[in-house]
Amino acid sequence: MPEAIIKVRDLVVGFGDHNVLKGLSLDVHRGEILGLVGGSGSGKSVLLRTIIGLLPRRAGSIEALGTRLDTASDAQRRGVERHWGVLFQNGALFSSLTVRQNVQFPMREYLKLSERLMDEVAIAKLEMVGLTARDADKFPSELSGGMTKRVALARALALDPEIVFLDEPTSGLDPISAGDFDLLIRTLQQTLGLSVFMVTHDLESLHTVCDRIAALADGVVVAEGTMDMMMMSEHPWVKSYFRGKRASMIAQAPRPTAM
Amino acid sequence: MGMASAPALNSTVSGERLLLAASGSWTATYAGQLESLVDNQAAAAAKLHGMSIDMTGVREFDTFGAWLLERLVRAWKGNERSVEITGLPEHYRGLLDEVHQANRGDTDARRTSAGILRWLNGIGRSFEGALRGTLPFVNMFGAVGEALVRVVARPKNFRITSAVHHLDRVGWQAVPIILLITFLIGCIIAQQGFFHFRQFGADIYVVDMVGILVLREIGVLIVAIMVAGRSGSSYTAELGSMKMREEVDALRTMGFDPIEVLVLPRILALLIALPILAFLGSMAALFGGGLVAFLYGGMAPEIYIERLREAISITHFEVGLIKAPFMALVIGFVACTEGLRVQGSAESLGLKTTSSVVKSIFMVIVLDGLFAIFFASIGM
User: Fold this and answer.
1) ipTM, 2 decimals?
2) What is the pLDDT of residues B154-191, one digit of tens each?
3) B67, B153, B236, B365 — which has fewest CB within 10 A?
4) Domain that holds residue B299
5) CB-CB under 8 Å, B32 with A190
């Protein structure tokens, strides 16, 4: 049994008198890329935002890196948060800071480092995500969509986290850039030994990079496992998603060997 | 996480080689300590010809550790000395290879320019910026004029709903606060008048002062400044955030002229609202003056009105109200121009809103001064 780095148990989250997540349980294993799929409005982003503490939960427990987040003190929480990075859907870069300052922001906050080391590490991170030192002094408004995602990823990786949360990392990118970004996530996951929790709509990402997939419907995880297990699921939503028209077109194409 | 411990780098010299034994956590948490350890070794003993780093004792290793190791290696290799790294666990190899590629590009020139040059550069740039800053206004003036001609030629194109909506916001909804403030200003002027004029027994002239001052200058000026702060800033912020979210570009691609759709109704609303507000404000100030004359100066309301009728003529009233539409134009132009100059960042939105308010208040006061000279020379 692989070690679970995030453990969600019987999670209930809702707004008003409507519960979005109804007793959901899910594990993310250490060193894997878990893809979370679900229809629009099924609560994928709600789950992600609840785990990282942006939304309150009504019941259930969340455990990350061996710490119960619901009962943890503020200091314990911060200790855990320091070990994860989040890539928001639209990047959420600070628009008044340069790319370099954006990447250095968490370092400045959490670590006591010399300016030189921060500069060097920030550039190294930017180069790891496929940018160059020349991009470092640009402002977020000067970046293209793909570059914004890359900078946001560099910022999420700034503290060398153990867990990375990705919210629709390839949305808004053209298929080629999306493919490159998938590959980048896979490469970084292997060099840095990350555990990745990825919310996505992109069937191709699921095929290429995810070790395991969890399908969200009706407020619970209705199917969990590898791509092959998804294909065998008889749940109506999972069936139409993975065996629908679009899905079969992608499945017929030869599977890229990114690993 | 459980095995985190402070990093160490023990050195021994064997012949002409430096042997380093690394241990502990080479991670972000200890990066500060680690940097000084590494820099000490990088500077060490110039006579030695080579270095071996034994990484067996290292428990944890991340990008920070990898980069500092790479920095040490580069420092030594730069002086044509050999370096070997042993005992690094295989799964950390990829990370070390990755940082081996890092920071090899050209460093940016922007940081390295000398202080005095940068200072001069800054002066030049801000001067150039100030000169260029006037261009958008001229541009906006022309664009609005052009849109106006088009709308006059085809009145159906005019966005009447939008203009009414803005008239409601900058006119109707501003009435209470404008009345309150001008009323208070009228009270204060009258009170100060009585307090000082009384020493000379010139109580009655307070009415002249209040009447002329309010109708000619204060009424319209205070209202224009209020409107610049209240409505000008909201125009800038609205247009600015529309610009940021590419709504302005969307309009343009659909074949609409943003000036016609967004700017013209706003300026027109101000053009109608400001004279009305100035009139209401002047009345409120005169009322405030009268109230203070009665309560504080002991002057009966009939006397106040009688004296007011003698002291002021329709000319004073005209001088005040003629200025109002021009001030409305200045506020509208400045606010809309600044709004459309907003760039992508949240900071620039704040900057442009501030500059919109500051510039329009400044322009309103300058305009008021020019009008004062003009009216004096034509004897109004």
Assistant:
1) 0.77
2) 888 888 899 999 999 999 999 999 999 999 999 999 99
3) B153
4) 136-377
5) no
